[in-house]
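Lecture 7, part 2: worked example. A protein chain together with FE-MO-S cluster.
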Amino acid sequence: MADQYTDVDPNAFKDEVLAKYPAKLAKKRAKQFVVNKVEDGDQVPEILANTRTTPGILTMRGCSYAGCKGVVLGPTRDVLQITHGPIGCGFYSWLTRRNQTRPETPESVNFMPYAMSTDLQEDEIIFGGEKKLKAAIDEAVALFHPKAIGIFSTCPVGLIGDDVHAVAREMEEKYPDINIFGFSCEGYKGVSQSAGHHVANNKVFTDVVGLDDTPKKGKFRFNILGEYNIGGDAFEIERVAEKCGLTIHSTFSGNSTYEEFISAHTADLNTIMCHRSINYLAEMMEKKFGIPWFKINFIGAESSAKSLRKIAAFFGDKGLIEQTEKVIEEEMAKVNAVREEIKARCQGKTVALFVGGSRAHHYQELFAEIGMRTVAAGYEFAHRDDYEGRKVIPDIVVDADSRNIEELKVEKDATRYKPRRTDEELAKMEADGFALRDYEGMMKDMDEKTLIIDDMNHYELEKLLEVYKPDIICAGIKEKYVVQKQGIPMKQLHSYDYMGPFAGFEGAINFYKEIDRLVHSKVFKMTKAPWESSPELSASYGWNG
Ligand code: CFM
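Predicted complex, written out as structure tokens:
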């Protein structure tokens, strides 16, 4: 059935795309290419996710090292981070994501402007790189006197068998005042950067969180997990939280410091922005320290308001709740003034989003606020729970790749386990509709007959552009120019191109304006791809056609 935004029959489109593949691949992709249907409020079709990309396919994915060093730890300014590996790994994970930070004073420690690496050469690949790593740590200590050093493993480190953990232990004995820890996040671990998130969560949990029991000042203290300050998002969230009277104890890891990490277990609540990258840490902190967690989302003005209300309701303080309402009213007035005008122009336009493991969901809300509809969305590396909701976790099949990443056994801390709410209180909150420890996933929020595509590749993206002709595509740098050459505007949702923030209320205003500008720009339609004037450059995808 055609709907008001597109005449494309999603099932026919799916068949057309899969028809190009060899039979075995088509069978697999058919499970990762789903036409949405929501039944009984939250029952959605099953999707195949977090499995290996078929060799030869141009995937949008990144590697485990990227997920660990680039994503989870990268935005922390005062943990000195050494990439143990060839120089390219360190260089390409250095600031391309546009994670920002704001040291307290100009003199405060900030390692972000540096890309530190052991710069492995052929010699070390043959004879081992541990000596060079130790020398790098000596040099780093002499130059920077950091409180903490993280060592990040790249593919060759695993292949040649360097033991970064043994080096970390040895160097910690040499420098007892410095916390030195290594990550086994070799790029090939797991099937995507998602594996690196898990490796990072585990190490941060065992070697960092809980080292200092001093709480920050502030009455309503909570942590934000999975917010990485891309384009200044964290600054906007901090502004709004402060206005409400909330204290963000630590953010993992946008605009963060090591001191905030080590005392994060003293906060009373963990909120999760990006479920995919950091849900492990929230679960482990709840088990060990008794800190409850729930999902929030500061992408979208409405979602921001909802998240603030939920946090205020958790603390349950009358003054806080009133102040939060006041802030929301003030901020929404500014947002609505811009939104109405832009919505009138953008209403009915379509978008397709293909981003990592959470933004393809979060940004649909921002688009909806200006009347734009998501016709297709997908993740590069999310798991079934990010699509279908956490209720499917018990049914997720563990395979050789996912077994590769250690699941830590976590016990209650003997002295510091302190439930912030009693079991009865938590049960009552849940009975009152207050979702704890939950994430309902992306598909439930998407319309009937929209497309959900896991680990999309460039061939499928090109087909989608051709058939759906969305008004704008949101993805990453690997997709950007392919899309623009087809005359379609493209917004990078990883790095935000050159902009931001897009979170919170001011972020929403920035985003509306940017999308309005992009979807109404004529320039993209004026570009001619090289093959349009030189047909000999054109090519088609191989296999059976
Ligand atoms: Fe989480 Fe992220 Fe994302 Fe992610 Fe990423 Fe990112 Fe992303 Mo790029 S942590 S899953 S590994 S929200 S770097 S800030 S934009 S793919 S959708």
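The mean pLDDT is 95. The longest strand covers residues 221-227. Keep this in mind for problem set question 3.
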